[in-house]
Design a protein that fits this description.
This protein is an all-beta fold. The protein is about 0% helix and about 25% strand. The longest helix is centred in the first third of the chain and has 4 residues. The N and C termini lie far apart (about 100 Å).
Length: about 280
């Protein structure tokens, strides 16, 4: 397969392929999409993948990859889908992800658009199944407009780099089920197009930044099972979310949770009066 030097899209998902990814695939110099999800590939993510600057989609979800996320991945300025979820990756989230231009300034056309093409007067559009908002959905006609990062269900540690919040055109970010610590930066308010955010099942601490209320497109939020504290920010849509979005944070309070904050004014509830209570009988 490495002899297919003009190959633009490689989809081998949902098979039982195992072992290392063949190094001969590094000969595919114009590869724009690689989908090896739901297999049993192992080892580290090959260096040639993150050096393929033509890549728009990296979909390596649900394999057995180990090691760290390669720093060179930040050089892929055309990248619009990065899904490395459900592997055994360790180390930290690269701070340089804000160098991925396509997720900062929006739609950028590359040398070709690998997601759509015309052959013999017939159009072809790549189909990709992505897990966004907690469910698998098929993307075809609007795939070219999707911007998402999913690093969930790995062994990533330390804090969430503030640089990731500079990805202002990102629509979906999932960092759940890792070992992330530290506070959530106030810079999260700059992710103006974010629709889905999942930071659940980590060890994040501190307050939920008030700036998260600026994310007017945010309709799917999960911060459950962390160590977050104090009052949940007030926002146009925050209080309408399901309380389960914040469940499992013992020190968190305020709507949509039923737990009041210590500085809330306690409303006086009138005492019930009934027969025989505080009455005098002749």
């Amino acid at each position: 397969m490495g002899s297919l030097v003009a190959l633009k899209a490689l989809s081998l998902h949902n098979n039982s392929l195992s072992g290392d990814i063949p190094s001969s695939l590094g000969n595919c110099k114009v590869l724009g999409l690689i989908n090896l999800s739901d297999n049993k590939f192992l080892g580290i993510i090959p260096r040639w993948i993150v050096e393929r600057t033509t890549l728009m989609v990296i979909h390596l979800r649900s394999n057995k990859f180990t090691g760290e996320i390669p720093q060179n991945i930040c050089q892929l300025s055309y990248l619009r889908v990065l899904d490395l979820a459900n592997n055994s990756l360790s180390g930290t989230i690269p701070k340089c992800l804000n160098n991925i231009s396509n997720m900062v300034v929006g739609f950028i056309e590359g040398h070709f658009n690998v997601l759509e093409a015309n052959y013999n007067f017939e159009s072809y559009k790549e189909i990709l199944i992505l897990n966004i908002k907690g469910r698998d959905s098929k993307y075809k006609d609007i795939l070219r407009y999707v911007r998402m990062i999913d690093l969930s269900s790995n062994n990533l540690s330390r804090s969430i780099p503030v640089e990731i919040f500079s990805l202002s055109k990102l629509q979906s970010l999932n960092l759940s089920h890792n070992h992330l610590t530290g506070m959530i930066s106030v810079e999260i308010g700059g992710m103006e197009y974010l629709e889905s955010l999942d930071l659940s099942r980590n060890s994040l601490s501190g307050e939920v930044p008030q700036t998260i209320a600026k994310l007017t497109f945010l309709g799917d939020l999960n911060m459950s099972y962390n160590n977050l504290s104090r009052r949940i920010p007030s926002g146009t849509q925050i209080q309408t979310l399901c309380p389960l979005s914040f469940f499992g944070n013992a020190e968190l309070c305020g709507a949509p949770l039923l737990k009041n904050c210590p500085d809330d004014d306690e409303e006086e509830t009138p005492r019930p009066t009934g027969i025989g209570e505080n009455r005098e009988f002749p």
